[in-house]
Amino acid sequence: MRSLILLGLVGFAAQLVDGSLGMAYGVTSTTLLLAAGTGAAATSATVHLAEIGTTLASGLSHWRFGNIDWKVVGKIGVPGALGAFAGATFLSSLSTEFAAPIMSIILLSLGLYVLIRFTAYGLPRGNLGKPLRKRFLAPLGLVAGFVDATGGGGWGPVGTPAILASGRIPPRKVIGSIDASEFLVAIAASAGFLVGLGSENIDFAWVGVLLLGGVIAAPIAAWLVRHIPPRILGSAVGGVIVLTNVRTLLRGEWVDAPGGVQTVAYVTIAALWAAAVAYSAREHRREKAIEAADAELLGPAPEEETARA
Which among 42, 129, 234, 237 has most CB atoms closer than 10 A? Predict the structure, then answer.
């Protein structure tokens, strides 16, 4: 019972982050399930089955708050579903011993990307209003869907930064569109795992608890996306993913590092992680101060002047 409660809290926290950042539900949940000793394919199947419900709830919540560009959802979601189905059937064919470290390497790479991307650059805001073309979104969806299914997460870490980097739609609509299109990816990946694994290797109690936690968090996250600093959250989440998957790799059969080496690695990563979060917080405050100074120099908007008159 205690493990199910903890799993529900994991689902809640992961969806809270995912719904406000556009990534990390699958990566966070998969990382923690792998750390608990669950098989790679079964872990990804469990997470994706739960995501059918959480992504639906998240998509509806983002739609309610006006955070979705439906053209983007259509152009990226269908290729993403195809990639996810292919990735799920591929992972199902691998042995657990071989798949677990491969998944940890994928997750570690995604964690490093998220940590560096958000710490160093924050959220780009140039080129707003320019259209996103299908020849960009379709290949992106195909790759992100495949990575998502084989890594247990990756739709958001691959798709969200790529669209954000284009600077063509507001960040809140990037996050809402990625979350809404992930519903198609979750259905396709789940179908692939059920074809490849069958249902006997999946713990549906775990699926239900992860789903419940995520559904509760979805509307809260959709509201928070307008208020929480994504740069700080991205640094924090990236650090968690990096630290947890380094731990999995160092303790696995591929590396099997001595205890002293593991301790040094954990302390080093924790120190760098803390520095990254502190840097992101400082940069966020600096950006806000610059925005406030610019607004003061420009003076009140024309409509404010009219209202005063």
Answer: 234
